[in-house]
Design goal:
132 residues; mainly alpha; 6 helices
Length: 132
């Protein structure tokens, strides 16, 4: 939040800042709770259950899904925060902000994943080297 305030050059009054933190808190709690979801049933319906025969594949698939979901929620949270800062002092329609934040987060998730996917083989190689 501090970096966004510095970037936009505007620090809302304390009351507005508390309201913004309130708007941002709920999505952050939801994003944290996503880690507790069990994706195993959904993955088997997608046909990814076949990969269970490969040792460690379940862990890698679950980690990839967790990472993608957390990236999406982190992006969404950033867009909600930005919109709160930009609309400080104005009427704030939650449904509109959420809709815009969801759309922007989905669009921005593609470049994040595109940048992250090439790093996976090197990370796996480093992990395997640690084990050996």
């Amino acid at each position: 939040m501090r970096r966004l305030v510095e970037h936009f050059g505007y620090r809302p009054p304390s009351f507005e800042l508390v309201r913004i933190y309130g708007q941002v808190f709920v999505p952050a709690v939801i994003a944290d709770g996503i880690n507790d979801l069990d994706l195993e049933g959904g993955l088997s319906q997608l046909g990814l259950g076949v990969l269970d025969v490969i040792p460690g594949s379940r862990l890698m698939i679950d980690s990839a899904f967790d990472g993608a979901i957390n990236a999406l929620f982190t992006l969404r949270l950033g867009f909600v925060t930005r919109q709160c800062l930009l609309s400080a002092g104005k009427t704030f329609v939650r449904s509109e902000v959420r809709t815009v934040a969801n759309r922007e987060a989905r669009l921005e998730l593609k470049p994040v994943l595109r940048d992250a996917v090439p790093a996976v083989p090197a990370a796996l190689k480093g992990l395997i080297e640690k084990w050996l």
